[in-house]
Amino acid sequence: MAETASGDFLKKDARTPLRGMYLAAGVNLRIETNSESILQITEQMFGQPAAGFSDREDIRLRLWVDEMRHADEPRPKPYFRGLGHMVFAGFDESTSVLMNPHDRSAVGRFTPEAAVDTKFWKMVLFPALLTVLGPSAGLTPLHCACVSWKGSGLLLAGGSGSGKSSLSLALAQSGFDFLADDRTLISTRGGSVLAWGLSPEMKHCSDAVIHFPELEHIECSEIAKGERVFRFDPVEVFGITRVQCCEPRWILFLERESAQVFLLDDIELEVAAERLQKDLHRETPATAERQRQAIETLLTRGCRTLRYGGDPHQVADALLCLVKGGWNAAQAASFSVPNKSFRGEITACDPLRRFRATPLTIDVLAMGKSIRVETDSHLILKHATRAFIRFERTKNGPSQFVWRIVSEPSEEPQVCWPPLTAFSDETVRYINIGRRSFVAMDLMAREAVGILPESFARDETGFSSVFLASMFYLTAPMLGLQPVSAACVAQGKKGLLVFGPPNSGKTTSSYSARKLGLDFHADQSVFLELDSGAVRAWGDFWPASFRPETIRLLPELSALARTFSYRDRTFLCLDKEPSISRNAESVIPTACIFLEREDATPRLIPLSNHDTRVRVRATAPFKDDAGSTEEREAVFTALSRLPSYRLIYGDPSVAAVFFRSVLNTHHVTEDRP
User: Fold this and answer.
1) 127 within 8 A of 183, measured Cβ to Cβ
2) Pair 613, 652 in one domain
């Protein structure tokens, strides 16, 4: 993880100087970005930036385009998953978004290709953002099509296969304005009820060409539920009129039949409410109550069932006649509803699995910090327990941080861990591990969540070295721990920090030092903290990682080590724990060595305080402004005062001898003049 997450891994230096305010489905949407294309596409979808809303925002998006990362085409099917108040959307290995319904915000990073893909934004990303964040901002997403007649909306409610798309298109061709064919957003601000379209796209099954021959000219390449489907913009293909919003006046619950029939029936208010509620996504109690009230208000406008069959154009003509006739007196009477409220229980689904339980827990005192790990997987619990086996278990007092980790079903028999990319904002950080796995952290809530496929969870070495390591790296600054990319060997309580770039031999030389009797605490990552003004160092808890070519120097690795694959590289991993006691303890750094691997005579060259300070500050694995800036600076200052050396060497076993010599030479209280 330390080598992978080098430089500005969290993109703390990413700038999003461009601003835009828009009215999206009745809520004020603020976008911060570095891409003119994103603002232009947003304006095409929602209209001109709204004026006078600079101090008021309902949803905030920070969207950064990484000009250095490019996507492979075609873009795979999006992956959406959540846990608690964090929802992740993965589109490819370099395009992802983290959404937070609690504070109605989202942060995301994109490739240049995604930034200019108008269809992606209009038909995938913005609908997803409004579906996830909209309920917290007062929107209720309904599984309804919607058309409008002179500003009055007709909602068509029904499940898949009820004909919403066909009937809404036929109504639009007959003279109605089109709003939505499957999902409609309802807002109830200021005492008015408005319906808003969620996506400009329409989706039809391949057999729709019977009634809509214009579809013959559209490529039908997508497969959904085993059936080929058309996806298209109905304005472009059929020349119909689209409107952004309307005031709902009628609601029809569609019941499609094979026979040609057109029959309007009464429906109980409670039954109508239950039908609309059953397709709502599960939300927090406060948001669910707002949605219940919105549906109650909506249903007082009038609702009925429509049993129908046959040609959708004939059905549309019949409905057009009713609307033009104002729903005659008898029909209007049948549309009236009882003047009472309902308390129908919301049986909401949870397709994002945000509210899944994590009943399995362990409490650990990792590096002296209390962390509670919650999961839904016995396998994850087992691996997490083993990863922290050398740390004390604790049940006393509140946890300083909570980790919630869950797994998803997967079919992959073997694992090669994908590349890591990340992004951050003031209070959140997230790392996407490929497209279907992520770690996210909320600084204010002091909570981190992670989701990974079962195939990743089964790989204990990778789970510890990539997944848990990523989560701990994000958490460490908030626990008062400063990570540095270094190895650590020790003699009792005296520690030696060993620095060096990738492939400089930190792991091999530290393992060789273990053979000489030194304790092997870390090979890639050390976590530093201040204790009464003194610096203490903790070694990482994941296995030591060797490159395969190391076997020629350490042939025993072929029998002892486990393999671990990351991207196109394979590593040999070995637990460090046999060299130290079961209960891990911190050590006090007494000196620093900076490795320089060369085919030259070994020699140790002292460094000045200034040189040490410059070198030590460069060893932070990535920029992160979480935690205390004062403590972080104090840690670096204290390290810069330690005796420090450049070690030029060629043979790791020789370097190990120097390690032992330096530890024997310097004492805990030693400082340079």
Assistant:
1) yes
2) yes
**What pLDDT shows up at residue 172?**
96
How many whole angstroms separate alpha carbon 95 and alpha carbon 578?
A: 41
Residues 141-174: tens digit of each pLDDT: 999 999 999 999 999 999 888 999 999 999 999 9
Domain count, the chain: 4
Is 520 domain-assigned? yes
Evaluate whether residue 670 is within a structural domain. Answer: no
Residue 180, in any domain of the structure? yes
**What are 505's two structure tokens?**
């031999």
Domain that holds residue 558: 482-665
Instruction: Report the pLDDT value the prediction gives residue 337, as an integer from 0 to 100.
Output: 38
Same structural domain, 144 and 111: no
| pLDDT category of residue 577 using cuts at 50, 70 and 90 | low
How many angstroms separate the first and last alpha carbons of the chain?
A: 36
Q: Are residues 57 and 159 both part of a single domain?
A: no
Q: How far is CA 152 from CA 177, 304, 374, in A?
A: 10, 16, 50
User: Domain check: are 95 and 238 in the same one?
Assistant: no
Q: Which of 335, 350, 384 is the last residue of a domain?
A: 335
> Could you tell me the sign of the dihedral formed by the alpha carbons of 473, 474, 479, 482, in that order?
positive
| Domain limit, last residue, from 479, 509, 538 | 479
* 123-157 per-residue burial string, b: 16 or more CB within 10 A, e: under 16: bbbbbbbbbbbbbbbbbbbbbbbbbbbeeebbbbb
Per residue, what are the HEC states of 333-394? Answer: HHHCCCCCCCCCCCCCECCCCCCCCCCEEEEEEECCEEEEEEECCHHHHHHHHHHCCCCEEC
Candidate from 166-175, 250-259, 340-349, 384-393 with smallest mean pLDDT: 340-349
Residues in the chain: 673
How many Å apart are CA 562 and CA 49, to the nearest integer?
Answer: 56
Does residue 25 lie in a domain region? yes
Q: Are residues 490 and 633 in the same domain?
A: yes
Same domain assignment for residues 545 and 651: yes
CB neighbours of residue 246 within 10 Å: 24
Strands 144-149 and 177-180, bridge-based pairing? antiparallel
- DSSP reduced 3-state for 562: strand
Judged against a pLDDT cut of 70, whether residue 49 lies above it is answered with no
**Shared-domain flag, residues 107 and 189:** no
Same-domain pairing of 164 and 309: yes
pLDDT at residue 336, as a whole number: 38
Asked whether 269 and 228 are in contact (CB, 8 A), the reply is: no
Q: 316, 174 in Cβ contact below 8 A?
A: yes
CA angle 245, 246, 249 (to 5 degrees): 150
pTM of the model: 0.90
pLDDT for position 542: 92
Domain harbouring 587, CATH code: 3.40.50
Residue 489 DSSP SS3: strand
Q: What is the mean pLDDT of residues 509-538?
A: 93
At 181, which helix (H) or strand (E)? none
